Every structure is written in structure tokens, then in C-alpha cells.
Amino acid sequence: MSASLDEVLQAIRTGIPLFLERFQECLRIPSISTAPENQPDMLRMSQWLQAEMRRIGLEHVQAYPTPGQPMVYGDWIHAPGRPTVLVYGHYDVQPADPLDEWVSPPFGAEIRDDYIFARGASDMKGQILAQLAAVEAWLAQGTCPVNLKYLIEGEEEIGSPYLDDFIRDHTDLLECDIVLNCDAMIHSAENPSITYALRGLAYFELEICTAEKDMHSGMFGGAVRNPIHVLTEVLSGMHDASGRITLPGFYDHVPTAEDDERALLAKAPYNDAAFLKTAGAFALYGEEGFTTLERLGVRPSLDVNGIWGGFQGEGAKTVLPARAGAKLSMRLIPGQPLDMVEKQLRAYLEAKVPAGCQWNLTCHSIGPGSVMHWKSPYMQAAADALKKVFGKEPFLRREGASVPVVRLLQERLGVDSVMLGFGQPDDGIHGPNEKQSLPVLYKGMESYACFLYNVGRLKPMSVHD
User: Fold this and answer.
1) Active-site residue (options: 41, 52, 92, 177)
2) pLDDT tens digit string along 109-155?
3) Domain range spanning residue 375?
4) Is residue 258 among the annotated active site residues?
5) N or C: which end of the chain has fewer CB atoms below 10 A?
């Protein structure tokens, strides 16, 4: 049975009420991978996703166990001579704190105006369900223009600790021509975009200790070191006055953006005022000599994500703490050797932490950045899909965030990815009141359907062939 693209798009529009019902049901499962108390919810989310995949007509759906959360797999391989698309996503979400800053419950999936508010609405349950809705519309017509495989993990938000091993051990299962990575955003509904490069991520925890126990600040203050003072001095010294990171050798392997790429980035419909409004920040900051987009895409960054030490309760307590700590992350440019980053940080700490202080550094996760082939026929298939649905040619951009699976799949399977998702920069992912625009997501469903149609017209081939 054959189906026209117009019939599929009409089926998507007709199916929106059911989609919205399923979307809210999914969002009400608090699948927080980092929290031990939410482990039953992680299992429930995995089971819900498998049931949904079977419901729309995918086959061989199962959860592959790992030492952590299971990998959910499914496929539909009935399009001989057509490309095989591996769809990647994740079903875990970030913690919802601070809870008191949410206008509505973080797992209530409340709809206000044209937005749905919930943790995971944009990152990324909305994206994976929109893609499944597009496939459902195709399969309901009795066909699909491509072969499909799914790899949906449950630990992306904690660094995907078992993903590399799983891909390595299941290369035959995951063999494909192209990866459709739904963990992505567009710039805006008026100006759609496609990401062609991602930064890597390294995440560390640092603790500095100056004594065996907490002390009275009147009896000992001024006579022994305060670990909070030491910690803040060490952290503040990681940047110089020009915004450059001061770890020894940190920029040795950071490639310089070529003039043509800087010109490509400059074409983006971007201005600093809109960026500040989206961020809610009071002023811009960054490495001198680069635009804001360049700082986000072609330059690395280092940020302190959390800091602790001493008395944190109500009122006053004159304590001189024994220890203090911080969590910090680095966004890395493709080409920076991952095995060097921790060595550079340790060399800095060895030089900067004063004698008489003990320190301990833990690396929680580290993943590579990646650059995708933005001139490939698959990337063009995505651009054509966005142009048809949104009515405007998308622009290409580098993304400052990290999706390590893109590089892992390049290395393990020898295939590239197309980043196609429909969150937006002001969705508030990882923060309170995360939201997803429903009109944009509905267009995303149609875009996914058009993308599959366009890919189905290509010859099966890897972009590396």
C-alpha cells in the first residue's frame, strides 16, 4: 500500500488530540535518572515508551539491560532498497528543583496558552514523541519511506555512562545509513535552524580540606586557612581578565575557526539584546575578540555549577569550616583531546592550591564534541523538510551544548547524525517552568514526516562513503 505525503500530514493533524493526551501522560512520569528515589519511575517510563512504540506498529521492541538504566530498542525494516534511519533520544529528565519557582507542578503537564509546562517537555520527551507521531502517521497508511531503528537511552542527563559500551557491543543491531538525533532545538518558529556542530562536556567535583573538623571562628579564625577562601581564590583564577581559561595548555588543541565558518555563523538572525532577554542575564561576558555566537560555538568555556561549604542554615553560626567544594564543567571544542583535560585541571590545582591544604578531584563524566557534514544529502533532506513546513530556509549553527552520542556514533558506526528537534532556546530546559510550544511541536511532527519522505528518495549510503 502506498501513501502520499499529503495524506500523512493530514493524518498527523487529525491525530493531534490523541498525541496531546499521550504527551501529558508521558510527562507525568518523573523519570529523573540522577535521583535514587525515582528509580521506579525510570522503569515505568521505559515500560511506557515500549508500549507506545508497539502501539504505533514498531517491531522487535525491547529493553536491553545495562548496569544502569535500560536501552529501549525497536525497529521497522520493511523498505527494501531504502536507507535505514537510526532514531536517537532519551527518556530521562533533569531534577525539577528549585520546586518553589515552578508556577505549576513540574510533572503536572499543565497547558497555558500555547505551551505545555513540565520537566522534560522540551528536553526531550516532546521531541521523541513528535517523531513517533510522525512514524505512526506513516505506518497507519500501511508503509514508511525508510527503514527505522530506535535507540532511546535512560541516562543522557547523567552523562550516558553505559552508552558507549552498548553501541560497541551492538554495532550490527544499530547498523544504519544516518542517525536522526531528536535531542535538538531550532532557533525560533520564525527562523528555523539546524545544528551542525556540538561542544563536548567534562564535569568535575573539587573538594578542598584544611582541617580534620569544623572550628570556632573566634578561637581559630585568622590563624588557620579557611577552605572557602582557598576554594574561591582557586576558582576565580581559572579565568584571566580577558575571559580566557588559565589551565596550562588548555588552548593548545583548540582549532581556530576559519573565515568562511565565521562568516557562516555571522549570517544567523541573532542580536545580543534578544540573547540577553532569553537568558534573563544582566550583561554579556566572555573571551575577548569573539562574538557571542562564536563564544558559544567555536570556543570552549569553563563554569562553576555549584559551590558549598560552611553553615548554610537559617540565622548565624560562627563556624570556620574544615572543607569546601565545588562542581564545575567545561564545554569543549571538537578536537580538544579528552585525555588531556583532566591532566590540565590537575596541573592547575597542583600549582594553585596552597601548601597545608588537601584537595581531591573527581571526574564525573567526559564526552567529546562533534562536527557533522552539513553539506550531506541527509542534512539537505532536513533543510528541505523545515522549509516546506515552516515556510523558510533554515540556517546552520553551532550549538554550545553537548550531545556526546553524536561523536560516539561517528566513531563506532561510521555514520553521521542530523540534529532535528523542536525545542527553542527560551524553553527553560534544566530550570524551573520548562515549557514546549505546542504549535512548534505540531510543525515538528510534520517536519519529521517530511524528513523521512525526503530520505526515502535517497540511495542507501553512509555520508562517509
Assistant:
1) 92
2) 999 999 999 999 999 999 999 999 999 999 999 999 999 999 999 99
3) 5-198+369-456
4) no
5) N
